[in-house]
From TrEMBL:
Superkingdom, taxonomy of origin: Bacteria
Species whose genome carries this gene: Roseicitreum antarcticum
Protein name: LarA-like N-terminal domain-containing protein
Length: 440
């Protein structure tokens, strides 16, 4: 792994910073009704597909899987594979994740493995390649690329979660359409989408998806929706001609479950983990208030200072999004794979997310810097919030000023006593947002 090396610099001026006390607050975000039988719902979606039913026995069927940490994704994928095999066909898996995994075939297999999607777990071959076929160009000259292995299959099943995008707000954001144009387009296709910047996401991406849907062997989409507790609340089989309408309809449902913090202003936000499995940008701008795209205003809340304290296990060194923070630690910086984050930025053209913030020796120094630079009146009155990740918000740590606000919110459930933040002898934060280690 190609990781940077930073010195463990110490600044005596931080030694005198007294951190505010925090209380652990339990929150309840809107939840849905979980799908009772996930394998059964996947099986029904596939068996109701007219295109798959029309295949001759022994046909090859590519199952396209992406790089997101989707709830029960191994169960979903295995159910799809088993159903296709039971129908008398020959399933295999293709990674559909654009340029993720450092833009290499082996890297993309590694990304799937971090999600539990291995050949052993799935019982089929994973055919990973960055080679693509060219399906033509859009009216403005963008080339439509499509994974070579998927293109040569008799049918393709696209499996993806429908959710809001990390940097833009559109009727159709992340879902089956995006995976068709970007995920299955591999690195070449992702570059075709992102080359002209944010406007391409509203214009180029849909145009490329329409070409791919018309010319590729895509036979079915399996659209998934999660609620704020990461439970699957919708599993639908979608015919290719309905990808656009389904994405738009299910996005409205998905957005009703987005977990947010009810603050317009946060002085200091510490995020225990970022990762590509958590958000495409490492951490969700709906929580951090930072998309940091020059042509697009940042959404609320306004967060004066942000610190990143760790990477998720499943992200596999992909620390994209660290550039949205103001502070991080030597430990985090040295665990980031530069090849992966640089590849993402070179492909997406969103280079800001791969920059490095101020790197300090440990969590203690970072927390002291976070609070003392947050523009609050004094350290004790700083509105400090600590979250496990921007995806896991059922328990958070809040200081006094934010506690007063959260008690008036409809998502507030209860709170514990105020406590000092605890650190070990090496300066690692011991007081975590979740009482138990529930975050992988």
């Amino acid at each position: 792994m190609t990781s940077p090396t930073f010195p463990a610099l110490h600044f005596p001026l931080l030694d005198s910073v007294v951190l505010p006390q925090v209380a652990r607050v339990n929150l309840k975000h809107k939840a849905g009704t979980p799908v009772a039988d996930v394998p059964g719902a996947v099986r029904d979606a596939i068996k109701l597909s007219a295109r798959l039913a029309a295949l001759r026995p022994g046909s090859s069927v590519a199952i396209a899987l992406g790089s997101r940490g989707i709830s029960q994704i191994v169960t979903v994928a295995r159910a799809a594979i088993d159903t296709v095999r039971d129908m008398g066909h020959l399933p295999f898996v293709v990674p559909a994740m654009g340029s993720h995994g450092g833009g290499t075939a082996d890297g993309q297999v590694g990304v799937l493995a971090k999600l539990g999607l291995t050949e052993e777990a799935l019982g089929v071959e994973i055919r990973s390649s960055m080679e693509v076929v060219d399906y033509g160009e859009t009216d403005v000259g963008a080339r439509c690329k499509f994974d070579k292995h998927a293109a040569h299959a008799d049918a393709v099943i696209v499996v993806n979660r429908v959710k809001s995008h990390t940097t833009f707000d559109r009727p159709i954001e992340s879902g089956l359409v995006k995976m068709t144009a970007v995920g299955l387009g591999k690195a070449d296709g992702a570059r075709s989408v992102h080359r002209t910047g944010p406007v391409a996401l509203s214009d180029t991406l849909p145009a490329l998806a329409r070409i791919a849907l018309a010319r590729s062997p895509i036979a079915l989409g399996i659209a998934l929706v999660e609620d704020s507790d990461k439970a699957l609340v919708a599993i639908e089989g979608v015919a290719p001609e309905d990808f656009f309408a389904s994405d738009e309809r299910l996005l409205k449902l998905a957005k009703t479950f987005i977990a947010r913090l009810p603050f317009s202003h946060i002085d200091a936000l510490a995020v225990e983990q970022i990762g590509k499995d958590i958000s495409g940008a490492g951490m969700d701008h709906a929580v951090t208030g930072r998309a940091d795209l020059r042509s697009i205003p940042n959404p609320p809340p306004f967060v004066a200072r942000i610190a990143v304290l760790g990477l998720s296990k499943a992200t596999g060194g992909n620390g994209l999004g660290v550039g949205l923070a103001d502070f991080t630690t030597v430990s985090v910086a040295s665990s980031i794979d530069l090849r992966q984050i640089y590849m993402n930025s070179l492909t997406s053209t969103l280079v800001e997310k791969s920059r490095f913030p101020i790197v300090l020796a440990n969590d203690l120094d970072v927390m002291r810097a976070l609070v003392s630079t947050s523009w609050s009146a004094d350290n004790a009155s700083t509105g400090l919030c600590i979250v496990a990740s921007t995806l896991h918000l059922n328990q958070v740590l809040l200081s006094g000023p934010l506690l007063e606000q959260i008690r008036q919110s409809e998502i507030y459930v209860s709170e514990g006593p105020l406590q000092d933040l605890r650190f070990d002898a090496d300066g690692k934060l011991l007081t975590r947002a979740y009482e138990r280690d529930e975050i992988s």
